[in-house]
């Protein structure tokens, strides 16, 4: 019985891990096409750095879009703990 519990636990962990990696890959390729992620745990839209900033936080990663009035547009995909690339690029202006 103990063997079955361990085996079942390992299978469940593997399924969760594969699902999480699949979600990351799907959202990464959606971000390359400038589409928003499938799952957003929190969303934030604000005016900063002289443009409009949108951020969607998901399971361990963040998708962001930044557009300025002069039609400059940046978008990206980063880990939650990584520095904000928009702040690094436009923050000092």
How many structural domains can be distinguished in the coordinates?
A: 1
Tell me the structural class: alpha+beta
Strand order of the largest sheet: 1-2-3-4
- Helix-strand string: HEEEEH
Helix content: 25-40%
Strand proportion = 25-35%
User: Whole-Å distance between the termini?
Assistant: 64 Å
Rg measurement, Å: 18 Å
Count every beta strand, where a strand is a DSSP E run of 2 or more residues: 4
Low-confidence stretches: none
> What is the tally of helical segments?
2
What do the pLDDT scores average to? 85
Q: Largest sheet, if any?
A: 4 strands, antiparallel
* Shape category: elongated
Task: Describe the overall structure.
40% of the residues lie in helices and 31% in strands. A 4-stranded antiparallel sheet has the order 1-2-3-4, with helices on one face. It has one domain. The radius of gyration is 18 Å and the shape is elongated. It is built from 2 helices and 4 strands. The termini are far apart. The protein is of the alpha+beta class and 93 residues long.
């Amino acid at each position: 019985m103990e063997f079955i519990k361990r085996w079942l636990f390992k299978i469940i962990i593997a399924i969760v891990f594969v699902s999480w990696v699949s979600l990351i890959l799907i959202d990464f390729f959606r971000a390359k096409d400038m589409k928003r992620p499938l799952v957003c745990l929190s969303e934030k839209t604000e005016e900063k750095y002289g443009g409009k900033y949108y951020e969607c936080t998901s399971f361990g990663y963040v998708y962001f879009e930044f557009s300025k009035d002069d039609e400059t547009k940046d978008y990206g995909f980063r880990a939650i703990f990584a520095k904000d690339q928009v702040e690094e690029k436009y923050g000092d202006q």
